[in-house]
């Protein structure tokens, strides 16, 4: 199988798994969102430590720990991704799956906006048009919900910030996730310990199967990350960028068809505007990429 096709399969598998996460997190109820998050962090530390050794990245991890600048950036990324994970689990387990999908639909636009505000990047005309349409969509959804779509906004901005910090750090995925979960692990362990002492822990109190599901949270976290990493080195970034819409599309479908969440007409209009903005944004990005490649080819031929 050609590397490009294998990469597409890896990428599609990663985003499909991320898109199916709502089905998984609801299996861990009646445990609360913070308890599920704490277990995810602790089991992820163990899983990533094993992967770190098997992938022979221990040397890279040690170099990361000795680099003060990268250590601070990854420490900040750890806090931000914890907010993202917690917000997502809370949203899924509080009947807001459709709203969580909105967060990941608008994430590419938020990422671009952060590039403008933080890195001083400049937007092209159609990118500004996409941003304006997305802003109108969020305003309309705020009126529809009777409140700002906080879950979606927290997910979009936390993940956008996470991506920005990771870009600045320039660290490999395995050692980065290992350090991120390691930074938060003491707080997660303390919270679980408090739940146990208070007699409010859900781990082991709802049967062996439920407890075993908790232990798989590390694997569930690691597998799509490894698939994404394998895809990133095999397919063009444009293809990977298009694949990212698979996850929120699946989440949106699950919210409607499986969890039966309400979707009034005004909400359809809001989501429709978001999708229009994404079409404009994506088509413009693909065309811009093609123009850049054509200019490079012409310059090389000359």
UniProtKB/TrEMBL annotation:
Family membership: Belongs to the EamA transporter family.
Coiled coil regions in record: none
Predominant location: membrane
Output this protein's name. Protein RarD
Family annotation (SUPFAM superfamilies): Multidrug resistance efflux transporter EmrE
Show the PANTHER family listed in the entry: ACYL-MALONYL CONDENSING ENZYME-RELATED (PTHR22911), SOLUTE CARRIER FAMILY 35 MEMBER G2-RELATED (PTHR22911:SF137)
Write the record's keywords in alphabetical order, separated by commas.
Cell membrane, Membrane, Transmembrane, Transmembrane helix, Transport
Q: Does the keyword Coiled coil apply?
A: no
**Which segments cross the bilayer?**
7-25, 37-59, 71-90, 102-119, 126-143, 149-165, 177-199, 211-233, 240-259, 265-286
Does the record's keyword annotation contain rRNA-binding?
A: no
How this chain sits in the membrane, per its record, is: Multi-pass membrane protein
**Location in the cell:** Cell membrane
Where does the EamA domain start and stop, copy by copy? 6-142
The protein's matches in InterPro entries, at most eight in alphabetical order, are given as: EamA_dom, EmrE-like, RarD
């Amino acid at each position: 199988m050609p590397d490009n096709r294998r990469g597409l399969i890896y990428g599609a598998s990663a985003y499909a798994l991320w898109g199916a996460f709502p089905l998984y997190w609801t299996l861990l109820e009646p445990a609360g969102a913070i308890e599920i998050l704490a277990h995810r962090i602790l089991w992820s530390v163990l899983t990533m430590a094993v992967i770190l050794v098997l992938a022979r990245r221990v040397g890279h991890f040690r170099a990361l720990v000795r680099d003060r600048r990268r250590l601070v950036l990854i420490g900040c990324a750890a806090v931000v991704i914890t907010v993202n994970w917690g917000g997502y689990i809370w949203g899924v387990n509080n009947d807001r799956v459709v709203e969580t999908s909105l967060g990941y639909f608008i994430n590419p636009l938020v990422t671009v906006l952060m590039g403008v505000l933080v890195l001083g990047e400049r937007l092209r005309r159609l990118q500004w048009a996409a941003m304006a349409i997305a802003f109108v969509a969020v305003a309309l959804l705020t009126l529809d919900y009777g409140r700002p779509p906080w879950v979606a906004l927290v997910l979009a901005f936390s993940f956008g910030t996470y991506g920005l910090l990771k870009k600045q750090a320039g660290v490999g995925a395995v050692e980065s996730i290992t350090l991120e979960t390691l930074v938060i692990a003491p707080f997660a362990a303390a919270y679980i310990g408090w739940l146990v002492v208070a007699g409010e822990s859900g781990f082991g109190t709802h049967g062996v199967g439920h407890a075993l599901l908790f232990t798989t949270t590390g694997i569930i976290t690691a597998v799509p990350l490894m698939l994404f990493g394998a895809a990133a080195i095999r397919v063009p970034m444009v293809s990977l960028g298009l694949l990212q819409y698979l996850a929120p599309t699946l989440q949106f479908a699950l919210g409607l068809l499986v969890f039966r969440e309400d979707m009034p007409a005004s909400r359809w209009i809001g989501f429709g505007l978001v999708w229009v903005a994404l079409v404009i944004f994506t088509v413009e990005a693909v065309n811009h990429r093609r123009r850049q490649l054509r200019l490079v080819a012409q310059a090389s031929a000359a």
